[in-house]
Write a structure and sequence with these properties.
Blueprint: H1 4-11, H2 25-40, H3 53-72, H4 74-78, H5 87-112, H6 118-126, H7 144-161, H8 170-198, H9 202-221, H10 233-238, H11 246-264, E1 274-276, E2 281-283, H12 289-299, H13 303-316, H14 318-332, H15 346-350
Antiparallel strand pairs: 1-2
Helix pairs in contact: 1-2, 3-5, 5-8, 7-8, 7-9, 7-11
The structure holds benzoyl coenzyme A.
C-alpha cells in the first residue's frame, strides 16, 4: 500500500494547470484515480493537488457564499453596537462582530488557495452573482434580536459547520476549526443574553419571546432546501465537502434547541413540535419554502439594504486599499530596506459594511 506521502506526490503535479487540466488522457486518469482514492481514504486535498474542475468550482461557490455571509452577517448585529444596554454588552458585541470579519478573511483566503481572488468574489457579491445566507436579510428590531441571533443563528451555523472541519479540502477544513471555536462563544453569549432577558421583567421576557418567534423559522431555512430539492448535496457529499444532508443537520439543530428553549423559559413558535418516540427525534412543522425562495430571489425584508450598505462600505474603503498598495510597492522596491508588506487585502479595508447610521 502506498504511503500517504507517496499518494500525495502522485496527486501533486507541479506545472499542472490551475483548472486541473493535464496533458494526456492517461495522465488525466491517473490523477483522477489518485484524487478519488484520497477522498475515499479521508485524506485532505491540498491546493497544489490535482482536482476535478467541478470540485474546485463547487468549493469556490460554497466558500464564497460562506465568506459573504460572514461579512454581510456583521450588519444586523452591528446595528445594535451603539445601543447596547451596558458597557459589558457593548464590548462583547463588538468582539463578536469583529470575529465575523475575521471569519470572512479566513474564508476569502481559503478561496484564494483555489485560484480565485478576493476582488473577483466581492465583485460577484456586489453584482448579485453570488449569494450570501438568507438569514441576514431579516431585520434586527430589538436588543433581544442580538440574543436570538447568537443562540439560534450561530447555533445553526455551528451545527452546519462542525462537520465542515472534516471537509475534504484542507484549507477550508482548517479554517473551520477556528471559526467553530469562535462560533461556540457566540452561541453562548446569545444564550446568556436571552436568559437574562427571559428572567427579567415581563416586558424583557416578552421581547425575548418575540425575537425567538421571528428568528426560529428563518434559522431552520439556513440549512438550505429540503434534500429532495438540494441541487448540490449528493455530489458535495460524494466528494466529502458536505458530510451530512441539509435535512439531517436541520433535524439535529431542532433536537438541540428544544431542551435549550425549555431552560431559557421560552417557547419555540411551532405548534407541531413534539418528540417522536419511534424516530427518537422531534417532529416539527412545515417550513415556508416560498418565503425562502423569495428571500433568495432578493425579495426579503432587508436584501436591498444589506447589499447597498456593503457596496457603500467597499467604496468608502477604497482609499485604504490604495494606501496599502502604495505602501507595499514602496517597501518592495530593491534596497528599500524593510520587508515587503503583504499584498493589499480588499476585505481588510472594508469588511464591516457597518459604518453609518443604525439600520434595521
Ligand atoms: N441562503 O443544493 P443546495 C453564519 C442556495 S454564516 C442562501 O442545498 P449547498 C454567521 C445554494 O447556495 C452562514 N442560499 O446547496 C455569520 C444553492 O444555490 P447556488 C453561512 C442558500 O451548497 C455571521 C441553492 O440554494 N454558512 O452562520 O449544497 C454571524 C441550492 O442549495 C441557502 C455557510 O455558508 C441559504 N440558507 O448547501 C452569525 C456554511 N441554502 O449556489 C452567523 C457553508 C442554500 O446553486 N455552506 N442556498 O446558486 C453550506 O453548508 C452549504 O452551502 C449550504 C447549502 C448548506 C448553505
Amino acid at each position: 500500500m502506498a504511503t500517504a506521502a507517496a499518494q500525495q506526490t502522485a496527486r501533486t503535479q507541479p506545472g499542472t494547470g490551475r483548472d486541473g487540466t493535464v496533458g494526456t488522457t492517461d495522465a488525466d486518469d491517473a490523477f483522477a484515480r489518485a484524487f478519488d482514492a484520497a477522498v475515499a481514504a479521508d485524506e485532505r486535498i491540498e491546493p497544489r493537488d490535482w482536482m476535478p474542475d467541478a470540485y474546485r468550482a463547487t468549493l469556490v461557490r460554497q466558500i464564497a457564499q460562506h465568506a459573504h455571509s460572514e461579512i454581510i452577517g456583521m450588519q444586523p448585529e452591528a446595528n445594535w453596537i451603539t445601543r447596547a444596554p451596558s458597557l459589558r454588552r457593548k464590548a462583547i458585541l463588538m468582539a463578536k462582530v469583529q470575529d465575523e470579519a475575521g471569519h470572512g478573511l479566513y474564508l476569502y483566503s481559503a478561496a484564494e488557495t483555489l485560484g480565485t481572488g478576493r476582488d473577483e468574489l466581492l465583485d460577484k457579491l456586489h453584482s448579485g452573482r453570488q449569494k450570501y445566507s438568507s438569514i441576514f436579510n431579516y431585520p434586527t428590531l430589538t436588543w433581544a434580536d442580538v440574543g436570538a441571533i447568537g443562540w439560534l443563528v450561530d447555533g445553526a451555523a455551528i451545527t452546519n459547520q462542525v462537520p465542515l472541519c472534516r471537509c475534504s479540502y484542507g484549507p477550508y477544513a482548517r479554517a473551520m476549526v477556528r471559526i467553530c471555536k469562535e462560533e461556540s462563544f457566540h452561541q453562548r453569549q446569545g444564550y446568556e443574553l436571552l436568559l437574562a432577558l427571559s428572567k427579567g421583567t415581563p416586558e424583557q421576557h416578552a421581547m425575548a419571546q418575540d425575537a425567538v418567534d421571528r428568528w426560529w423559522w428563518p434559522s431552520l431555512m439556513m440549512f438550505g432546501p429540503p434534500d429532495d430539492e438540494s441541487a448540490h448535496s449528493a455530489q458535495s457529499m460524494a466528494w466529502k465537502i458536505k458530510r451530512h444532508s441539509n435535512d439531517e443537520l436541520r433535524q439535529r439543530f431542532v433536537d438541540i434547541c428544544v431542551p435549550q428553549a425549555e431552560s431559557l423559559g421560552l417557547t419555540l413558535p411551532d405548534p407541531d413540535l413534539r418528540w417522536n418516540e419511534e424516530r427518537g427525534q422531534h417532529d416539527f412543522g412545515a417550513i415556508d419554502w416560498t418565503e425562502f425562495r423569495e428571500v433568495l430571489k432578493g425579495n426579503g425584508p432587508c436584501n436591498e439594504q444589506r447589499i447597498t450598505q456593503r457596496r457603500r462600505a467597499h467604496d468608502e474603503g477604497a482609499w485604504v486599499r490604495e494606501a496599502a498598495a502604495a505602501h507595499a510597492a514602496k517597501h518592495s522596491r530593491p534596497g528599500a530596506g524593510a520587508p515587503a508588506a503583504p499584498a493589499p487585502t480588499t476585505a481588510s479595508a472594508d469588511t464591516t459594511g457597518t459604518t453609518g447610521a443604525p439600520q434595521a
